[in-house]
Amino acid sequence: MRIRITKEHGGHRLICTRRNGTSTQGPIGPQLPAHDLAHYVVERELHLTEGFFGQIAAGRSIQEMGDPAVIRTLPQQVWAAEVITRNLQGLANGAVAQSAFREAVEAELQRVTPGLTNEAGTRMLATYTQLLNAWDQVAEGAALELR
């Protein structure tokens, strides 16, 4: 799937084009590109195929993924991806210590996540930081594209 985040004045746009050529898009707030980039990193590193972007790839729309009624019906992996994503953002802003990353996630989820180690957290933080830096370099009207 191709993930494209376009920088727009006052907000941004997320466009996801699936392998079959269909797509979904929608406006996202000024702070959401960082969250979406964290989702991308987490889901890719941990092979979470049913997370946020996995749901989009399977046919859900961006609007559905923001609907609380729909969210309640989604697989557990969506919640796991969300928790890990928030903790990755916590790593990036210093709210979560690298040495406590895995434990923080597992305490919230109340279970072990396969592949989640403090080392995986370190790798994800490095990738996430690179993507945030790349996003900062995107000019107004241009886009950051991921696959």
Kindly describe this structure.
- By secondary structure, this protein is of the alpha+beta class.
- A four-stranded antiparallel β-sheet has the order 3-2-1-4, with no helix packed on it.
- Strand 2 and strand 3 form a beta hairpin.
- Helix 1 crosses helix 4, helix 1 crosses helix 6 and helix 4 crosses helix 6.
- The longest helix has 19 residues.
- The radius of gyration is 15 Å and the shape is globular.
- The mean pLDDT is 93.
Which keywords apply here?
147 residues, alpha+beta, four-stranded antiparallel sheet, 6 helices, 4 strands, 48% helix, globular
| Strand fraction | 15-25%
What's the gyration radius in Å? 15 Å
**Number of DSSP strand runs:** 4
> Helical stretch count?
6
Main sheet strand line-up:
3-2-1-4
The profile of the biggest β sheet is: 4 strands, antiparallel
Morphology: globular
Report low-confidence residues grouped into runs of 5 or more: none
Distance between the termini: 6 Å
Q: What is the arithmetic mean of pLDDT?
A: 93
> Helices and strands, in N-to-C order?
EEEHHHHHHE
* Class derived from helix and strand content: alpha+beta
Binned, the helix content reads 40-55%
